[in-house]
Write a structure and sequence with these properties.
- The structure is a single chain.
- By secondary structure, the chain is of the alpha/beta class.
- α2 runs antiparallel to α5 (124-133).
- The protein is elongated.
- The protein has a seven-stranded mixed β-sheet, sandwiched between helices.
- It folds into two domains: 6-187, Spore Coat Polysaccharide Biosynthesis Protein SpsA, Chain A (Alpha-Beta Complex), CATH 3.90.550.10; 252-266 and 273-284 and 333-483, Rossmann fold.
- It has helices at residues 18-31, 45-55, 73-83, 102-107, 124-133, 141-151, 172-187, 258-273, 291-299, 309-317, 352-362, 379-395, 402-411, 428-438, 443-452, 478-483; strands at 6-9, 35-38, 60-63, 89-93, 120-123, 156-160, 205-211, 214-219, 225-228, 281-285, 301-305, 322-323, 337-343, 363-374, 398-399, 414-426, 457-470.
- Bound molecules: zinc ion (ZN).
Length: 490
């Protein structure tokens, strides 16, 4: 017989849940799922729960109260939420706006389970990791599970159900010591380490936000943010891989008019020109509409690469030497480059260490890297982060802080020559639209001022630009950084 699709675990403190088990079986038979119902018994709730989860073979694991104080169809709803791939974990709650006690949230995590109901559903990977790592023996292991869900970067959603029971599994005040002991256990490294930061390899990473269908992780050490995506292949439970976006969303620069893009490109070109000798050979990674290449090709020997065939085709139509290739697949048939540019491209690279090693190989010793990227330590980013999280991660995989970028470059064999704010040209209609939707009160006054300014106008996007020079010889510590972290998924 093939493995069941759904495993329902009913942890029992003592026997006698025959009615609940029968009701669940009757219900699941009507849904068409293949299923199994496990009723592990132990005096300790958490011990029974862990045994049930470790025995469960289904792709979706549902944990149910033995009293079943809610309609049995709630199990089907929870399974559907996990099965659809929208979330990894579902906590049921009796109230739509349930957030849990502020004290517990401040000690643990922003998303807590509802103590009045113990219905929850997990993907089998999530269940085996969070239940397997939990240590508490009483019902407060629900809090521990919520904490571990955050630690390991699982997405958590709520399911609202009607419940007849007003019995509480745990009380806030009594739970504070447990919450503190969970934090202390974490400090002692009692739990399995979370996947490390892809930039600095620190294990101090947390969920910064949940965006539709995904989770954004935050590194406490280098302050970078990255998109967390899971692949279930290879059967490795904690293997989490940064993947490129499956569907290609139209890049945001296309919202800007041709004159705005040309002016931005010209401004970038002037930034380079002061630092390069004439007839230098330059490579642009990510050519977009080719407007930068069109300007650069007049003075320099220009080559470009772009993994998107449409962008490469469009740039070639302008007479530019552009190859449709990614950084890893690009083969340089000419001499090494004097300069490489990455204008807001580095954020889309899944492995920054590999990318910089590759860039270093393509550059001459002493060659320059011109890089612009969003800065998570910048004021604009800090103030707009919560609002723009989903938008920022629609096209980006990793957002860097300026200190992380500088450290990364220095450790990859580059010397920082200059760091400064990055500016771009924007059409006034976009600025007016932004003002109208974000600051409607000052919009009329701002419109009057905007009339006095040129269109397109120069604005700060909260990004920085860095000029880094390739050092000659081997990078400092490059081997050491890689070899001390064999656990990093690659
Ligand atoms: Zn980091």
């Amino acid at each position: 017989m093939s493995a069941p699709g759904v495993s329902v675990v009913v942890p029992l403190r003592q026997g006698g849940a025959g009615n609940a088990v029968a009701a669940i079986e009757r219900y699941l038979e009507t849904t068409g799922f293949t299923f199994e119902v496990l009723a592990p018994e132990n005096e300790q709730y958490a011990v029974a729960l862990r045994r049930g989860v470790s025995d469960a073979k289904g792709g979706v694991i549902v944990v149910v109260d033995p009293e079943l104080p809610y309609p049995v169809s709630a199990i089907g709803d929870a399974v559907a939420m996990v099965d659809s791939g929208g979330t990894d974990i579902v906590f049921a709650s009796t109230r739509a706006g349930h957030r849990g006690s502020a004290i517990l949230r401040s000690i643990l995590v922003p998303i807590l389970p509802d103590p009045s109901i113990q219905l929850s559903a997990f993907t089998s990977t999530a269940a085996k990791i969070v239940a397997g790592e939990s240590r508490l023996v009483d019902c407060r292991c629900d809090l521990e599970i919520a904490f571990l869900a955050n630690k390991y970067g699982f997405r958590v959603e709520r399911l609202v159900v009607q419940s007849s029971s007003r019995k509480r599994a745990y009380a806030t005040l009594d739970s504070i010591p447990s919450a503190i002991s969970i934090r202390l256990a974490n400090r002692r490294n009692a739990y399995r380490a979370a996947r490390r930061c892809p930039v600095c390899f620190s294990a101090h990473v947390w969920t910064a936000a949940q965006i539709p269908g995904n989770v954004v992780r935050e590194c406490g050490r280098c302050k970078c943010r990255y998109l967390n995506q899971f692949t279930d292949d290879e059967g490795a439970p904690v293997r989490r891989v940064l993947r490129a976006h499956a569907e290609v969303t139209p890049p945001s620069y296309e919202a800007h008019s041709q004159p705005a893009r040309e002016k931005t490109s010209l401004q970038r070109f002037n930034w380079l020109r002061g630092r390069l000798s004439s007839r230098a050979r330059i490579l642009e990674i990510g050519v977009r509409d080719g407007s930068f290449g069109a300007i650069a090709a007049n003075e320099y020997e220009y080559a470009g690469i772009d993994p998107a065939s449409a962008a490469a085709r469009q740039a070639r139509a302008r007479g530019l030497d552009v190859t449709c290739a990614s950084l890893s697949s690009f083969v340089n048939t000419g001499p090494a480059f004097d300069a490489i540019t990455l204008f807001h491209v580095f954020e889309n690279v899944p492995d920054p260490h590999d990318a910089l090693a590759r860039i270093k190989d393509l550059l001459k010793p002493g060659g320059m890297l011109f890089l612009s990227a969003l800065d998570t330590e910048g004021l604009i980013y800090v103030f707009s982060e919560q609002k723009r999280m989903a938008q920022n991660f629609r096209t980006h995989l990793i957002l860097y802080s300026r200190s992380a970028l500088i450290e990364l470059l220095e450790r990859s064999g580059f010397e920082i020559a200059d760091v400064g704010p990055d500016f771009e040209y924007r059409d006034q209609k976009l600025v007016r639209h932004w003002l109208q939707s974000h600051h409607p009160f000052i919009a009329p006054l701002a419109r009057v001022i905007l009339k006095l300014l040129p269109d397109p106008m120069i604005v700060s996007t909260g990004s920085i630009r860095i000029v880094a020079k390739r050092r000659a010889g081997m990078p400092l510590n490059a081997r050491a950084i890689r070899s001390v972290e064999p656990t990093h998924a690659r």
